[in-house]
Amino acid sequence: xxxFSPESLAAIGPKExxxxxxxxxxxxxxxxxxxxxxxxxxxxxxxxxxxxxRAERSGDTAAVMHWIITGGPNGQDTYETVIENxxxxxxxxxxxxxxxxMTMDALTFLKTIxxxxxxxxxxxxxxxxxxxxxxxxxxxxxxxxxxxx
Length: 149
Hints:
single chain; 149 residues; 5 strands; 42% helix; globular; SCP2_sterol-bd_dom; SCP2_sterol-bd_dom_sf; SCP2 sterol-binding domain-containing protein
């Protein structure tokens, strides 16, 4: 497979990225996600989120979610996902009050979004901390096309 780097991520699709996360040792992912390349990787992941959004399953969902990713070289990174009017937008500069805020380290985040980790189990074991509308958290998988690797 390819190396775990921003350049590699930009060149592969969601399914290949899922396989990359599953095949890369946790220690390597944690090392990369604690480095200066972390922001590029997170930006690439979040920039793809609107393309994986399933508008047909969103119904009348209106939600602002904050993803707080801890453990970076400069502390934490926060991204805002807004779902409204059957659209999904993402920014790395949150401005709206979240209906749901989730805090986790970068490894847990990548495992969650690729289906390599069970979000409910990660929440129950304290790896994911959530504030706000927990029912929204349980609906995230149906709102996005999470590739199976």
